[in-house]
TrEMBL record, chains A, B:
InterPro entries tied to this protein: HTH_LacI (IPR000843), LacI/GalR-like_sensor (IPR046335), Lambda_DNA-bd_dom_sf (IPR010982), Peripla_BP_I (IPR028082)
Top-level taxon in the UniProt lineage: Bacteria
Organism: Nonomuraea wenchangensis
Cross-referenced SUPFAM superfamilies: lambda repressor-like DNA-binding domains, Periplasmic binding protein-like I
PROSITE patterns, sorted: HTH_LACI_1, HTH_LACI_2
Limits of the HTH lacI-type domain: 2-57
UniProt protein name: Transcriptional regulator, LacI family
Entry's Gene Ontology molecular function annotations: DNA-binding transcription factor activity; transcription cis-regulatory region binding
Pfam family of the protein (one): Peripla_BP_3
Keyword presence, DNA-binding: yes
Alphabetic keyword roster: DNA-binding, Transcription, Transcription regulation
DNA sequence: GGCACAATGGAAACCGCTTTCCAAGGGGGA
DNA sequence: TCCCCCTTGGAAAGCGGTTTCCATTGTGCC
């Protein structure tokens, strides 16, 4: 590959001058030389070696994003938001998918840290295991000690800037809205108990029901994805009139399960989700959910990560209950 | 950040030895020193600086993948397939989204090339503009001249390894299948005319109809995304009995448009798509489509890119027509 | 016991670029 | 006209690793 030295030689200038012309610098270079360098670079098809630049400058122009599952619209939206924000700053994005394995998440932080990325974004729920979280914290701390920046979308458990959706509050508000429709027998497709997001939403929902003096909902655990919702829906008690899936993809799975079983939604059972992923608009019946501004959250997380803050800032993001056809008024 | 030199000092060995212990080498290091180095690295929390490694080794462990839109399930599936394949090889992935701007695609190739990524994957349709394609080819050629590898999912227009879905053949077969159901008046939600994938599918479909002696379909151009399908569906002539959207997300948009307009699918109009994106299973009515093994294609493209081939290899991928409820037999 | 050779450790060159530090040239003010 | 300061170009020292090339030591064999 053609190097800066080749360009400098061809232009008959020093390495320093070539560097100043081509790769940005505070220093001025005379018009004549500048033109010669640019022409030489063009003729030779020079492309700066970013690895070398990164090494010399001590900081690169790439950021890392770690998500659980890129094919899940929730993560896709978050990642897209972050990537758009990154693009406006001239940053490249390295994406890692953990496929929901917390160990993978730690490994990615280590790898991204080794890459000396400018910032890493951890997108997605934490797990309840303090041991795992501890190791992740350690890895992050080491990375940040070396000047790295980090932010997280999810729970404020890592000691870094965090965009934290109000999972409990959102779920509670949803519960009140559904109860307001006359429902009393609920089930929660609760996801995995150790997933903090899932647990929070479940707890928020159940807590609100309790405050209203309603019976405790049936808790149906399962995976946090579409198939998890599909499968969990089939374990719901027959007397339940309203099912809350702790995220939209699970709710979509549940809708499918009901459709297959010939159970009508919302006539026979009401269904609600959480997140308001964009693809919901194409599902029938339209799904009641709690809207989260996913793209903005992703973008915001990147901003936070890049900002020069002293102490980690935690930003709460409220969810907004959106009632749609998948729930009906009872009685 | 702690450097290899710190580790070497702490362990009381040379830089060379430390490097050999920690970052892999053909050379053996005695057990005693090896242990000392490992302990030192562990105590200090050493993480190799990949930028430096990349520079010294002349090749990094990152691949680049450029997609049009990561929130589109089609690209998400392809990217996920490629990322899984990359992970098994210990490669990291840098993702760029062009948001369907061909210039962005060229820019990303330049940037990734500057990053000295091991390989770049261009995922998604080419555009018909020979000028743009030419510039992209140039950029790719330069990258490959420097030892970079490249592959493409889409049309074989770039002179690189290509995984090429059989768009024309798939669409043609779909047309025959639909005609076999008794339809004669077709419309094609054709996407943008300059998008080769869209144009090929459209041409394949229309060509098959012509061979069957059926009237030419109504061609309705528009954007290649869900909203494009939604909008295009409303411009379809009333006498059309069967609508082919050149990709699934457009078909999903069309289904939504019909639902909103009170047009029943398939009773009033049949609808078919292309790709068989995984999310289809949750739409009603279930969409007839042409199945493409998206994840495999992504993985395969990565393999091709990494393989040591002399001449670019082009691999055709056949599509399989999948008839589902969204189409009905006529008469 | 002596020698060739394999195994192992270290010094130093190098990867490609940035940036400090100098040197030299040029312009403006006194 | 002289001096000082501001510009501009270049030499060279890193950035943090890898790897070649030696030097040294230990081993097997005659």
């Amino acid at each position: 590959m053609v190097t800066l030295e080749d360009v400098a030689k061809q232009a008959g200038v020093s390495l320093a001058t070539a560097s100043r012309v081509l790769n940005g610098s505070t220093r001025q270079v005379g018009a004549a030389l500048r033109a010669r360098v640019e022409q030489a670079a063009d003729e030779l098809g020079y492309r700066a070696n970013i690895a070398a630049q990164t090494l010399a400058r001590g900081a690169g122009n790439v950021i890392g994003i770690v998500v659980h599952d890129l094919t899940d619209p929730y993560f896709a939206a978050l990642a897209d938001g972050a990537m758009r924000a990154a693009a406006t700053q001239g940053l490249l994005v390295m994406v890692g998918t953990t496929h929901r394995d917390p160990e993978q998440e730690i490994a990615y932080v280590a790898t991204l840290s080794a890459q000396r990325v400018r910032a890493v974004l951890l997108v997605g729920s934490r797990v309840a295991d303090p041991q795992v979280t501890g190791r992740l914290r350690d890895e992050l701390a080491r990375y940040r000690a070396g000047g790295g920046r980090a932010a997280c979308v999810g729970q404020d458990l890592l000691g870094v800037d965090t965009v934290a959706p109000a999972n409990r509050a959102g779920a509670a508000e949803l519960a009140r809205a559904l109860a307001g429709l006359g429902h009393t027998r609920f089930a929660v497709l609760a996801g995995p108990p150790h997933l903090v997001t899932a647990a929070d939403r479940c707890a928020g929902f159940a807590g609100a029901l309790e405050e209203l003096g309603l019976p405790a909902p049936q808790i149906v655990p399962g995976p946090f994805d579409r198939d998890g919702g599909h499968e969990a829906a089939r374990r719901v008690d027959p007397d339940v009139t309203c099912v809350f899936a702790v995220n939209d993809v699970m709710a979509v799975g549940a809708l499918a399960a009901y459709r297959e079983a010939g159970v009508r939604v919302p006539e026979d059972v009401s269904v609600a989700g959480f997140d308001d992923i964009v693809t919901l608009r194409d599902h029938v019946p339209a799904l009641t959910t709690v809207r989260l501004p996913l793209k903005d959250m992703g973008a915001r997380a990147l901003e936070l990560a890049l900002a020069e803050d002293v102490a980690p800032v935690v930003e709460q993001v409220a969810g907004e209950v959106v009632l749609r056809e998948s729930v009906r008024r009872l009685g």
